[in-house]
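Many introductory courses stop at the sequence. We go one step further.
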Amino acid sequence: MKPQDRQGLFEALVLALPNPVSELHYANPFELLVAVILSAQATDVSVNKVTPALFRLAPTPQKLVELGEDKVRELIKTIGLFNHKAKNLVLCAAQLLERHQGEVPRDRASLMALAGVGVKTAGVVLNVAFGEPCIPVDTHVFRVSNRLGLVKTQKPEQTEVALLKVVPDWAKPKAHHLLILHGRYTCKARKPLCPACPVSAFCAYFKNNPPA
């Protein structure tokens, strides 16, 4: 894709989605970190159903440690992998207290040293909580960026590096959610809504699969 097409593509996405934000519910970086850990292999909708009660009882790392793994497990039991996630959440909270005075760190290495935090989770926290221009990659971002022709990657872990090379600098802080929301509601996995797509003029898939 040519640089001018990438520019036009993101300008069109911003026109369609002028305020792209996370659909997870949170009030501060700690709540965001908890919600993103819970969202692994789970939908934002399912996470948002359990976090109000969890955050009410454990609004801080100290309160989460005091709540304990058994109670956390009970509160999140409708989420996939809840046993593993309960253990990680309590351990992560303890690590925040021990290493960072209860504050969520804003560097990737420190985040990824916390229990339950991988590359994507760290990237989401850095991007959403702290405004860092990284582009964490989930299934939507991987699918959409390849389908559009922004990148050609075989694995999600290759995709952020590739995107950071081609996404216009001004769009990088928003690119994660622009691509996620576009993939969630328009560029769907099985049946992309090409006739309603605001960026079809720039899309490699649309050019190769025009409507009949």
